Amino acid sequence: MAELLKNVYTREFITALAQQLTAIFPAFDKDKFQHLIFDDTWQQKELKARMNHIAQCLHQVLPGPYHHNLELLKQIKVEQAGFEYMFLPAYVELYGLEDYVASIPALAHFTEFASSEFAVRPFIIKYPKQMMAQMALWARMDNKHLRRLASEGCRPRLPWAMALPAFKQDPAQVLPILEVLKDDPSEYVRRSVANNLNDIAKDNPKQVIAIAKRWFGQTENTDRLIKHACRTLLKKADPEILTLFGFAPPKAIEVTALKVQKQVTMGDKLSFSFTLATKAQALGKLRIEYAIDYMKSNGKQARKIFKIAEADYNDRQKAITREQSFKAISTRKHYPGAHAVAVIINGEELAADKFILTAA
């Protein structure tokens, strides 16, 4: 089983941080700091809560005032950039919202080794005009981390972060920044642009469809960006987007020999298989997906779509076998009862069958 991300904050990590802060500021009480970190609530805290907790403990031990503490924290040497240092921008988020002048350069400094994508968002809400002007400046910087922050920080629906309701309603202020970054030399930055557009598509699909049509075909990099940006629209089988990427209605395709395991126990895997066939010369360009209709707590079903493959098939038949796990995960709770699996080709459901999920 993969190690939980929150466990990156080991006693060794916190001890090394305390020692470095003592070297920067000899009066730093490293024993008090470590005692505050590993309190009675530590084990129950998830990743982001641990980041905020470390920032809060720093604030209790550092001498103050805020702008002086920032200068001390900026002296921390980071050997390898990573999310584990995101407690530094979290410190700015928690204690610097009223000090724009000191906080924004600090966020720019910290984002080079610990992304400020979460921390910048309260500043966008409190200082929208100033911050979007700042984001536009960052979008043109030589530093790729600042360019990425310009996009990632203003995503309307950034996971784990507070939403930006104004941009969910109207992304007009975000779009010029994405326009600047769409041809960025860094894949790291372009991927953020794609994720931002995918966020926008959930609330303003027509705007993203228009952008996709305008950008598609310009460069290979931009085409990949647009494809990733339109993943939600593809799952929703938007006809304009399917056409843009060359997925025609599957009029000559049929699903044969759909076999679905009739019963699966929670914690186990569902097995199913099917064959795609055509009487034409070849199957052609296909986006192959399947959907699971999950039973919910209210007794109704809710659909989740999973991608299998996208390819241009020269054969007239394609056999596919898949398994779907029903192990409990943090983002999905399973309920016993009637479920279904459906085969979706180029956005159209071509076959389906039912199965029963039973309690362990």
Number of helices: 16
- Please estimate the helix content: 40-55%
Strand order within the widest beta sheet:
2-8-7-4-5
- Please summarize the sheet with the most strands: 5 strands, mixed
* H/E series: HHHHHHHHHHHHHHHHEEEEEEEE
Q: How far is it from the N-terminal to the C-terminal residue, by CA?
A: 21 Å
Task: Assign the CATH architecture of the largest domain.
Answer: Alpha Horseshoe
Name of the CATH first level of the largest domain: Mainly Alpha
Overall number of structural domains: 2
- Averaged pLDDT, please? 96
Count all strands and give the number: 8
Could you explain the architecture of this structure?
The chain has 2 domains: 5-244, Serine Threonine Protein Phosphatase 5, Tetratricopeptide repeat, CATH 1.25.40; 253-358, Immunoglobulin-like (Sandwich). Helix content is 42%, strand content 21%. The longest helix has 17 residues, at 187-203. The chain is globular. The strands form 2 sheets. A 5-stranded mixed beta sheet has the order 2-8-7-4-5, with no helix packed on it. It has a 3-stranded antiparallel beta sheet with strand order 1-3-6, with no helix packed on it. It has 16 helices and 8 strands. With 360 residues, it is α+β, with helices and mostly antiparallel strands.
Structure summarized in a few sentences:
It comes from Thalassomonas viridans. The protein has about 350 residues and is of the alpha+beta class. Helices cover about 40% and strands about 20% of the residues.
